[in-house]
Design goal:
Blueprint (H helix, E strand, L loop, with lengths): L10 E2 L3 H22 L4 E7 L3 H17 L2 E7 L5 H12 L6 E4 L9 H6 L12 H8 L8 H12 L8 E5 L6 H10 L3 E5 L6 H5 L4 E4 L17 E4 L12 H4 L5 E2 L6 H22 L1
Parallel strand pairs: 1-9, 2-3, 2-4, 5-6, 5-7, 7-8, 8-9
């Protein structure tokens, strides 16, 4: 990735500054909670097997948690873990009053049925909004916890004053923790959304019609620069080996008006929102 040239119309949407503000708010709230109750918010993460991208993410998350006054607990399970064992571990964490948020790290290797594990997370500790009830509340615009990366993207778009209302947004990737909930949040903000996936036909032509392109499919440099309509806003929510996103960054910069870099764009926002929601979840649990 190279920075846009001075002659390029493309500007970067950087997540670090806004993420720092969100983390500062979370830190203040975590310190107040600790002063009032003697309890630090505790985020428990379950990771299955060894995945370099997941390990990097968990390491960054743990550092940000420490700085914010949040305990970060990581449980690593072997690749031979069964669905039943994973669900049991999730339920153990769910019944532990010392744990306030539960995160099941992706990817979850087959043949584990991750949906069963998601549904085992108690609603009040579902800080990444992965259960069916949480997703349903998000789709309907009801109050509650939200999927962290979609929320981070929406906050980043608002920070850069992207006029979402009336935009044609193309979301590439239909993950239940990213593409689908993000599409719902965009619709709730009055965008017209086309959700694309591996069976979508004529994908480049669809993307060329988009005012806002969000790539979240996990394939390095998949979205080509000539797919981007001049002046479009591009959000790269991918993270692949070698610090490469899902968009061909240099080529996309020739047409985009705004674009998120990888790293430094969406990633910091995801972690900041996760920690912020964990502190909020802990505060609500300790008030009961």
């Amino acid at each position: 990735m190279s920075l846009p040239s001075s002659s390029s119309p493309c500007k970067l949407m950087l997540g670090r500054e806004l993420a720092a503000k969100i983390l500062s708010e979370a830190t203040t709230a975590a310190r107040k909670l600790h002063a009032d109750t003697g309890v630090q918010p505790n985020l428990a993460t379950i990771m299955i097997g060894n995945n370099s991208s997941s390990e990097t993410y968990i390491r960054m998350k743990s550092l940000r948690c420490r700085d914010a006054g949040v305990i970060s607990t990581t449980l690593v399970l072997g690749t031979s873990t069964t669905t039943e064992t994973l669900v049991e571990k999730v339920r153990e964490l769910g019944s532990d009053d010392r744990v306030h948020g539960i995160l099941l790290q992706h990817p979850v290797p087959p043949p584990i049925k991750k949906r069963e594990a998601f549904e085992a997370i108690p609603a009040e500790k579902d800080v990444d909004s992965v259960s069916s009830s949480a997703v349903g509340q998000m789709v309907l615009g009801m109050p509650g916890l939200r999927s962290c990366t979609p929320v981070g993207i929406m906050r980043l778009l608002r920070h850069y004053q992207v006029p979402i209302k009336g935009m044609h947004a193309v979301v590439i990737g239909r993950s239940p923790i990213l593409g689908r909930p993000l599409s719902s949040l965009l619709i709730n903000d009055h965008a017209t959304v086309t959700l694309c996936h591996s069976h979508t036909q004529n994908l480049p032509d669809i993307v060329r019609e988009a005012d806002l392109v969000i790539a979240a499919l996990g394939k390095p440099r998949f979205v080509r620069g000539d797919w981007i309509k001049p002046g479009a806003v591009v959000v790269d929510a991918g993270y692949n080996e070698g610090n490469v996103g899902d968009v061909d960054f240099d080529a996309a910069c020739r047409n985009a008006s705004l674009i998120t870099p990888v790293p430094g764009g969406v990633g910091p926002m995801t972690i900041a929102v996760l920690i912020h929601q964990t502190v909020g979840a802990a505060t609500r649990q300790l008030k009961h």
